[in-house]
Every structure is written in structure tokens, then in C-alpha cells.
Amino acid sequence: MEEKEKTEELQEAMQEMLRQLEREDEEVMARHEELTGKMLMLKTTKEVLEENGRLQGKVEELQGLLQEEKERNTKLEMQLNEMSKMTASVAGKASQDELLKALRVFVNKSKRKKMEKRIAVKEMVLELANANALALPADLAATIDSLDDEQPVVEPLPSVVPEVLAKSKEWQKVKAAGLVDENNQPTVSRPEAALMAEALSRRIGIENKWKMFELMWQRNNMRNDYNTALEQKKSLEFQERLKIILD
């Protein structure tokens, strides 16, 4: 019963944080409108006060304030959006363990977001944990702490291999040779990966090869990679190695 009450308190705390962010967002918008009105007033009187050097300084100051308010408004909107996602992810969880599990999934997904969103997620999660004395496991705390790193470590997701490729002996050979890893991602350079995709497609009979491999390897412009490979002398060595592996 005590754990259930703790869960309900955490959920209520998140709802209160969401309401607070909404109130702050309204205040920011009102402030933005007020400053915008002042900017319009300044613009209409600029010709009259042309020789007053302080006008330019005031305009620049207000422009700076507008920019700050715009950035703050963007941040608040981002926090509102991320808070809604986090609230949805933990809604209905019956125990603290389930809450932490849902929070872990949410944080891991956030590692793939842009820097500003990762910063917003980090601030919200830490604020929530501190406000409710929520003990975070060491590994989860480390992940949260690394959200604002310039290049966060993202766990690779295994790629789904199309059946026509997965059942081929050619695919098994390149895997055995270490040209792709356990997540079915290439371990070679992009140009060499394009050469491998072309060779596999030609031998297996895959028609729309670039689309299939781009989807599987989560990349674009493989045709350009292939053309680049044809222009590189070192590609000849890889082509010979690939031929030996596949024959």
C-alpha cells in the first residue's frame, strides 16, 4: 500500500510540474506580446528620434530581450512536449520498479534526440527525482548525466535482415568473414559497404538493392558511396577480398 501511495505521489508530482510549465508558458507568451508591442512603438517613433543615439541602444536591448524570451519559450514548449511523453510512458505503473523501468526506456530513447531536447529531458528527470527522493540506479543516473554530452553513446539496434538476404549463403559468408557485426551493420567503410551491397545483390538477384540496404543499414545515398568506391584505388583490394569470400 505504501509503495502504491508513493507511485501516486510521483504521478501527481509530474502532473503538477506539467501544470507549472503550462503556467510559465502562458507568462512567457504574455511577456513576448508585451515586448513585441514595445518594439512596434519604438519603430513608429524611430524617425522622430533619429538623432537620439540612445534609441539604437534601446532597440538592440529589446531585440536581445525578444531573443531571450523566444529561446525561453522554445525551451518551455520543448519541456512541455517531453514532459507529456514522459507522463504517458509512466502512466498506470503499479510499482516503483515499473516506474523506473519505464523511465529507463524513456531516457534511452531520448539519447537519439537533438541536444536541446536531451538537455530538457535531463533537467526534468533530475528535478522529478530530487523532488520525490527517487533513488536512481547507478547505471540510469550515469545515462541521464550523459544526456547533454556532445556525442552521447547510443546503443546500436539490431537491423532486420530481409528474408531473401538472410537465407542466402552469401550473407552468411560475409557475416562469418566479419564484414558485418552482430547487429547486421557493416564493419567496413561506407564505400566498401556499398561495394558489398552491390555484390550481394548481383549474386542473390535483388533488384531494388539500394533501397533495401539503405533501410537495413540506416543510411542514405548508397549509390553515391558506390560511385565513390569505384574512383578509389584501394577499393580494388576490397573487391578482390570480397570475391574470395563469396566464391
Written description of the protein model:
The protein has helices spanning 2-45, 53-90, 96-110, 115-131, 138-145, 163-166, 169-176, 190-204, 209-217, 222-230, 235-246. It is flat, with a radius of gyration of 27 Å. Helices cover 72% and strands 0% of the residues. The protein is built from eleven helices and no strands.
Which terms would index this structure?
247 residues, mainly alpha
**Largest beta-sheet details:** none
Beta-strand residue fraction: under 5%
Radius of gyration: 27 Å
Q: Average the pLDDT over all residues and give the rounded result.
A: 77
Detail the poorly predicted runs: none
Question: Roughly how many Å apart are the termini?
Answer: 66 Å
Shape from CA axes? flat
* Class by alpha and beta content: mainly alpha
Number of helices: 11
Number of β-strand runs? 0
Order of helices and strands: HHHHHHHHHHH
Helix content: over 70%
Give a topology summary.
Blueprint (H helix, E strand, L loop, with lengths): L1 H44 L7 H38 L5 H15 L4 H17 L6 H8 L17 H4 L2 H8 L13 H15 L4 H9 L4 H9 L4 H12 L1
Summarize the structure.
The protein is mainly α and 247 residues long.
